[in-house]
Specification:
2 domains, mainly alpha, 10 helices
Length: 221
């Protein structure tokens, strides 16, 4: 399938599919939109009720139709012009999402794999501030989750600890004893506090090493 202008609008297309997957119900995001519209991705379109049909059939039909229309609006508002044209004949959000899976499914899987691989290989280098390192880690996690990875909070912490330098072994040991639940932002703040204490001791050690050297130099001169 050839999509004209695909290279020039790749950012818009990726933004669209991620937006759609998050808010219309493909991924487990827990948003109100997912709760309201997920059923239109799993249930077939209801037939138009007969004139003498019970009121409940008209209510169910209107509910499904309005929900589908709302979902389509949310999808199209973030759609590139190329993809709008490509999907203008699709009448249901399920048809659109199925087609998206066909068009971008492999790209999404590859993006998820690359993000997880990047996270596992992202080791904190000597001299790198914990905030800078954590921002990279959080970016990898966000990218992986945006492309379908389901990583619970406990697993995220384990993965993060594996990327830290040995300077944070004591922090990890303390965490393993207390098992305190915290968000990634809270974890970063506590790591920064630990880093500041560690740096304080580190600066003292450097000063102690430097003093004998300057004394020796003075004596020789």
């Amino acid at each position: 399938m050839h999509v004209e202008g695909k290279d020039s609008s790749i950012f818009e297309e990726r933004t669209w599919i991620e937006f759609s997957m998050r808010y219309i119900g493909i991924e487990k995001v827990g948003s109100r939109l997912r709760k309201n519209y997920r059923f239109i991705l799993t249930q077939p379109r209801l037939p138009t009720p007969a004139i003498d049909a019970p009121d409940r059939e008209f209510v169910a039909f209107k509910c499904w139709d309005n929900s589908n229309l709302s979902a389509m609006c949310y999808i199209r508002v973030s759609m590139s012009n190329v993809l709008q044209k490509h999907h203008e004949e699709h009448e249901t959000s399920k048809h659109v999402m199925d087609n998206l899976e066909e068009m971008f499914g492999e790209q999404t899987i590859q993006a998820k794999t690359d993000a997880i691989k990047g996270l596992m290989n992202c080791k904190q280098k000597v001299g790198t501030l914990i905030k800078e390192h954590m921002m990279k880690i959080m970016a990898y996690l966000s990218e992986a989750q945006a492309n379908g990875a389901e990583i619970d909070a406990a697993t995220q912490l384990v993965m993060i600890f594996q990327t830290l330098s040995k300077d944070f072994d004591l922090f990890q040991a303390s965490y393993n004893l207390n098992r305190k639940e915290m968000s990634l932002t809270e974890l970063m703040k506590e790591l920064q506090a630990f880093e500041n204490i560690f740096k304080g001791y580190g600066f003292k050690a450097e000063a102690n090493v430097a003093e004998p050297e300057s004394t020796t130099t003075g004596a020789s001169s």
